[in-house]
Design brief:
alpha/beta; 11 strands; 2 domains; 11-stranded mixed beta sheet; Amidase signature (AS) enzymes; 427 residues
Length: 427
C-alpha cells in the first residue's frame, strides 16, 4: 500500500473493500514502530493487541492521535506534566467518546508541551530532527506528518494547532470557539481554549469537522461542513490579504512563498485584495496575553504551590505574570475581546476569508523553543476559524504554510474556500 493515505482516502477504501481495516492498522503500527524511536510523537501508545477494528460509523477502523491534555478512559493522560505522570482518567472527554462512537480507534496519546504551555516535550520535526515541530500540539502534528495516523486532535490557546501544522507541513484547522466541545480537556485559559484537528488535506479536515463539531456547547457553534460539495471555482473567491504590523518578522522565504501563492490565486481568477484592520486589532495580541496569563494563574497557582518541584519555570513565570495583572486590566482585555468580536464581521463583509502567514517562516532550529505564535494570537482571541496548509519548502527542506481565517460560525464557508485555495496551490 502507498503511504501515507489521507483520512478520506482510507474511509473510502474501507467502504469500497479495497483496503482492510486490519491491514491498514498494521501498516500504521509498523510505521510508528519505524519512526517513533526518534520522532517521539507519542507519550503513550495503545498496545496493538488492544486496538479494535470492529466498530461501526464514519471513523470505523481509523486510528486517531489524541493530544495528551484530552482525557481518555483507562489510558494515561499526563497533560505533559510530571504532576500527572500516573494519571489515568475514569472517563473519556466527550470528543473522545464521539470518536469512539464513530468507530475511531484511539491509537495513543500525542505529546503536548506541559499543560499546552511553553515547556516542550521530546518530539522532533519529522522533516528535520534538529528543528522543533512547534507546540503545543507537537506530537499530533508530527504523527500526522510522519504518516502514523491520518487524524489527530490538537488544542489552541494562542497558536498551538496552526503553528505546529505549518512547521510540520500538514493541514491544521482550528474551528470557531466552542465548535468542538472542550469538556474533558485540561484548560489553559477558558476564554481562549479551542479544540482542533490535524490532517493531511483540507478535504480531510472538513470531513473530520463534519463529524466532530457539536452545537451543544453553549459558548459557540458552527455549521457542519459538507465535504460532498464540489470544490468552488477559484474565480468565485474573494479573499482579503492581511499583513499584520509584525510582518517584518516574516522570513524572505516565507514572504516569497506567500507572494507566489497570492499570484497563483490571482492568475486562477480569484479576487485577492489588501485588507487593513484597525490598530485596535493588533492591541488584541496584548489583550490575549493578559487574558491567558490571568486565567492560567487562577488555574495553576494552587498546583505550583503544591508541586513546586514538578512544575516548570515556564509555567511558574506564566502564573507569576498572571498574578500581577490587576483585575481592571483583565476586565479591560475581556471587554476589548468582546468589542473586536462584535466588530470583526463588518471587516469580512463580502470576503470568503483572509489570507495571512501562520508563522514567520520555517520551524526554528532546536527543541527548546516551539516558535513564534504571534501570527495566530489575534485570530484565536477573536474565536474565529483558522486553517493552515503547506504551500512550499524552505532551503532547509522544512515546510512553509499559508493561513486562512474566516468569520465566527462560518467554518463551512472557510473550509470550502480553503479547498479551492488548496486545489490551485497544489498545481
Amino acid at each position: 500500500m502507498s503511504f501515507p493515505l489521507g483520512l478520506l482516502a482510507v474511509h473510502r477504501a474501507f467502504r469500497a473493500g479495497t483496503l482492510s481495516r486490519a491491514d491498514y492498522l498494521a501498516a500504521c503500527t509498523e510505521r510508528a514502530d519505524e519512526v517513533e524511536p526518534w520522532l517521539k510523537a507519542f507519550s503513550y501508545r495503545v498496545s496493538p493487541d488492544q486496538l479494535d477494528v470492529a466498530g461501526d460509523g464514519a471513523l470505523a477502523g481509523i486510528p486517531v492521535g489524541i493530544k495528551d491534555i484530552i482525557a481518555t478512559a483507562g489510558i494515561p493522560t499526563t497533560n505533559g506534566s510530571r504532576v500527572y505522570a500516573d494519571h489515568v482518567p475514569d472517563q473519556d472527554a466527550p470528543i473522545v467518546g464521539r470518536i469512539k462512537r464513530l468507530g475511531g480507534i484511539v491509537f495513543g496519546k500525542t505529546v503536548s508541551t506541559e499543560f499546552a504551555w511553553r515547556c516542550p516535550g521530546p518530539t522532533v520535526n519529522p522533516h528535520n530532527r534538529n528543528h522543533t515541530p512547534g507546540g503545543s500540539s507537537s506530537g499530533s502534528a508530527a504523527a500526522v506528518a510522519a504518516g502514523i495516523v491520518p487524524l489527530a486532535l490538537g488544542t489552541q490557546t494562542v497558536g498551538s494547532v496552526i503553528r505546529p501544522a505549518a512547521y510540520c507541513g500538514v493541514v491544521g484547522f482550528k474551528p470557531s470557539f466552542g465548535a468542538i466541545v472542550r469538556d474533558g480537556v485540561h484548560p489553559l485559559a477558558q476564554s481562549l481554549d479551542h479544540v482542533g484537528v490535524l490532517t493531511r488535506s483540507v478535504e480531510d479536515a472538513a470531513f473530520a469537522f463534519s463529524l466532530l463539531a457539536d452545537a451543544s456547547d453553549a459558548s459557540g457553534s458552527a455549521p457542519i461542513a459538507d465535504v460532498a460539495d464540489d470544490v468552488p471555482a477559484a474565480s468565485s473567491l474573494r479573499l482579503g490579504v492581511v499583513r499584520p504590523p509584525n510582518w517584518d518578522r516574516v522570513s524572505s522565504e516565507q514572504n516569497q512563498a506567500f507572494e507566489q501563492a497570492l499570484d497563483k490565486l490571482r492568475r486562477a481568477g480569484a479576487t485577492v485584495v489588501p485588507l487593513e484592520l484597525p490598530a485596535t486589532y493588533w492591541q488584541g495580541f496584548e489583550a490575549a496575553e493578559i487574558i491567558l496569563a490571568a486565567e492560567a494563574a487562577a488555574i495553576f497557582d494552587p498546583l505550583i504551590a503544591r508541586f513546586p518541584d514538578r512544575t516548570s519555570p515556564q509555567l511558574k513565570e506564566l502564573v507569576a505574570t498572571g498574578n500581577a495583572i490587576a483585575a481592571t486590566r483583565y476586565i479591560g482585555a475581556r471587554q476589548l475581546q468582546a468589542a473586536l468580536q462584535a466588530e470583526f464581521p463588518q471587516h469580512l463583509s463580502g470576503l470568503d476569508g483572509i489570507l495571512t502567514a501562520p508563522a514567520p517562516g520555517e520551524a526554528p532550529e532546536g527543541l527548546a523553543y516551539t516558535g513564534d505564535a504571534s501570527f495566530c494570537a489575534v485570530w484565536t482571541m477573536l474565536g474565529v476559524p483558522a486553517l493552515t496548509m503547506p504551500i512550499a519548502v524552505s532551503a532547509h527542506g522544512l515546510p512553509l504554510g499559508i493561513q486562512l481565517v474566516g468569520g465566527h460560525g462560518e467554518d463551512t464557508r472557510l473550509l470550502r474556500a480553503a479547498r479551492a485555495v488548496e486545489a490551485q496551490l497544489a498545481n
